[in-house]
């Protein structure tokens, strides 16, 4: 049977100050009338039974996530409340083990909740084909055709363009190598090589295969995961699990990777720059949201929640004003906002 794990535990530090520890981006309505996690749940409706959808989130967001799951009719027992953030390996490992104990033949789809998918029908078609591969023991990821030298995304290389896996309707290739968030110069080189795709961060696999891979590559973590059989055990053992992404822990090591080429209108709202690319622009390439007044700016993104923000002659800039903070930075440095958040934390500012 098919199961989904939705990852909704991050703070979205590259989205600061719109996203904060008190209200991270997955609970914000940024481009529609629904929050990003609500969009993710709605997107996969019809492909997964409600009782087979699991959500991993931080315990800080228990009230908000419970409200959302109740509205969608998802079981409360399917929520994993993480004691603290430890990246993606820990929640995926724990929920994969839980689902595997219920259904050893389960096919799991892991979905971050900060994506925009404009072509939903094609996306669901991709997931169905990926599930077919997963039933054969493969671990599938979606490879996004790169549009630019993006430093905020990971990349995955396929072994050969000439060795397409057949017979399938959507192109699929054997995965060869992961490259995590390269420098700008490295990213420029990667996109010249037609074998490289953006790593969409969406993974499809059989639950038993994932647990076998964890046992093979991280045997100690496997023992800890199998020992977590109650909320009390989770609190006691959570900090012993490695604080790494599933990409580093498993995907970069396994030989089972299949890459399906996913040209389905995928956008990752991982940064303010990414958000500025999807909102409607004026004739000068500007986006003004809220109380803004401008003279002569071009290709600039201004968001004001409270105060009037006036701008003069800005070019390729981001200006964000919220109740708690103001951010001003060049668009080309939007990925570095995460460093600012880390600095705020060290200086005990609210973030």
Structure write-up:
- The protein is of the alpha/beta class and 351 residues long.
- It folds into two domains: 2-270, Spore Coat Polysaccharide Biosynthesis Protein SpsA, Chain A (Alpha-Beta Complex), CATH 3.90.550.10; 279-346, no CATH class.
- 30% of the residues lie in helices and 25% in strands.
- It has eleven helices and 17 strands.
- The chain has helices at residues 36-43, 62-72, 89-102, 120-135, 184-190, 207-217, 219-227, 231-237, 246-251, 272-278, 337-346, and strands at 2-7, 53-58, 79-82, 107-112, 115-117, 139-144, 155-158, 172-179, 196-206, 257-261, 266-268, 287-289, 292-295, 301-304, 309-312, 317-321, 326-330.
- The strands form four sheets. A five-stranded mixed barrel has the order 6-9-7-8-10. A four-stranded mixed sheet has the order 12-14-16-17, with helices on one face.
- Helix 3 packs across helix 6 (207-217) and helix 6 (207-217) crosses helix 7.
- The longest helix is centred in the middle third of the chain and has 16 residues, at 120-135.
- The chain is globular, with a radius of gyration of 21 Å.
- It starts with a strand and ends in a 5-residue tail after the last helix.
């Amino acid at each position: 049977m098919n199961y989904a794990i939705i990852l909704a535990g991050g703070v979205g530090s590259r989205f600061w100050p719109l996203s904060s520890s008190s209200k991270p981006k997955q609970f914000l309505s940024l481009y529609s009338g629904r929050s990003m996690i609500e969009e993710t749940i709605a997107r996969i409706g019809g492909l997964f039974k409600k009782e087979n959808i699991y959500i991993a989130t931080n315990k800080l967001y228990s009230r908000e996530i419970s409200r959302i799951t109740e509205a969608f009719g998802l079981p409360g027992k399917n929520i994993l409340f993480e004691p603290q953030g430890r990246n993606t390996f820990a929640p995926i490992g724990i929920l994969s083990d839980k689902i595997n104990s219920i259904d050893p033949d389960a096919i799991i789809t892991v979905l971050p909740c900060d994506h925009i998918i404009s072509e939903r029908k094609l996306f669901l078609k991709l997931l169905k084909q990926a599930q077919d591969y997963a039933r054969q023991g493969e671990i599938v990821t979606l490879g996004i055709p790169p549009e630019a030298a993006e430093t905020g995304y990971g990349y995955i290389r396929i072994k050969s363009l000439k060795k397409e896996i057949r017979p399938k309707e959507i192109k699929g290739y054997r995965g060869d190598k992961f490259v995590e968030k390269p420098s700008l110069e490295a990213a420029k080189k990667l996109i010249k090589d037609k074998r490289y795709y953006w790593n969409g961060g969406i993974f499809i696999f059989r639950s038993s295969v994932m647990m076998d891979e964890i046992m093979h590559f991280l045997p100690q973590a496997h023992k800890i995961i199998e020992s977590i059989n109650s909320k009390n055990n989770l609190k006691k053992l959570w900090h012993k699990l490695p604080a790494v992404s599933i990409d580093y822990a498993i995907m970069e090591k396994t030989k089972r990777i299949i890459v399906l080429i996913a040209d389905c209108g995928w956008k990752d709202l991982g940064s303010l720059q990414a958000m500025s690319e999807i909102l409607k622009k004026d004739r000068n390439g500007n986006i003004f949201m809220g109380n803004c007044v401008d003279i002569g700016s071009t290709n600039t993104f201004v968001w004001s929640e409270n105060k009037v923000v006036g701008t003069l002659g800005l070019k390729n800039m981001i200006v964000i004003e919220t109740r708690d903070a103001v951010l001003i930075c060049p668009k080309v440095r939007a990925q570095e906002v995460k460093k600012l958040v880390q600095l705020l934390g060290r200086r005990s500012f609210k973030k």
